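Following up on my earlier thread - several people asked me to post the actual chain instead of describing it. Fair enough. Here it is, all 73 residues.
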Amino acid sequence: MSKIFSHRLKETLNNRNVKPINLSKATGIDKSSISSYLSGRYEPKTDKLVKIATELKVDPLWLMGMADKKEVE
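Reply from S.P.:
Thanks for posting it. Predicted structure:
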């Protein structure tokens, strides 16, 4: 599942023109953790997943590959 998360996170960052460093600053998540998520080595715990999804305005379940709908209403 980390490959799905990694792919969708990369896709969303590219589509929104957000750099990983800016996501790190906006969410308070370490740069190294963001890098690990992007490489597919790790998946975020729920609290960090929610921070990332909220900042990027996407459904956290979509990021994890558990939903088809990307956008949050």
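The mean pLDDT is 93. That should answer part of your original question.
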